[in-house]
Specification:
single chain, alpha+beta, OB fold (Dihydrolipoamide Acetyltransferase, E2P), two-stranded antiparallel ribbon, 9 strands, 27% strand
């Protein structure tokens, strides 16, 4: 299926499912052009709404501490296979860095992510984009949630495997990584 057809199907399915429940999801935020009918919490079909999508995923592999490859279940037996997903708002040290400490921290982040995801019985993604051009490498940006309700992105940040990333300059990111590497080393979690 081409991307436009899949996006159209997903939008149609989501609007139809929500319309049939006759409720407006709490996370649904109307856009400028959105009209809500007189009845509270009723959606108008065919109107564009601005909200995140949430899908069940099947993990295929972990690329590094902030990128995975997964199959995404769009529903009705429609799957997007082998999709590269970048964990939204997270940056982990590079595995191919010239700096030994950054390489070691990158490997630790990848290992921690692999173990954390492997311990879950199920995973889902709350996507932050559906347009590959939103990420410079064409990946889907998303927040991964385990069946236990754990936010994987927050897990990496809270445990100092990664730093918060929202497009800031490289010097700020490297400074934050250096602080995390010092923390991990001091606490015996990272051996250099």
């Amino acid at each position: 299926m081409c991307g436009d057809a899949v996006r159209g199907l997903v939008q149609h399915v989501r609007v139809e499912c929500v319309r049939q429940t006759n409720r407006l999801p709490e996370r649904l935020l109307p856009t400028e052009n959105t009209e809500i009918s007189g009845k509270q919490n009723e959606l108008l079909v065919g109107v564009k709404y601005n909200f995140m999508y949430e899908y069940i995923i099947k993990l295929n592999r972990v690329i590094d501490g902030d990128t995975i490859v997964a199959d995404i279940d769009l529903g009705f037996d429609v799957w997007l296979k082998d999709q590269y997903i970048r964990l939204y708002g997270v940056d982990t040290p590079e595995l191919k860095s010239k700096d030994k400490a950054h390489r070691a921290a990158g490997l630790l982040a990848k290992t921690a992510l692999t173990e954390f995801l492997s311990s879950a019985q199920g995973l889902s993604i709350k996507s932050e984009n559906f347009e590959p051009e939103d990420d410079k490498y064409g990946r889907i940006l998303g927040t991964i949630i385990t069946d236990r309700g754990e936010n994987v992105n927050h897990y990496l940040l809270n445990n100092k495997y990664g730093v918060e990333y929202n497009g800031q300059n490289k010097a700020e990111v490297m400074k934050a990584h250096a602080a995390n590497i010092e923390f991990l080393t001091t606490n015996g979690l990272l051996q250099l």
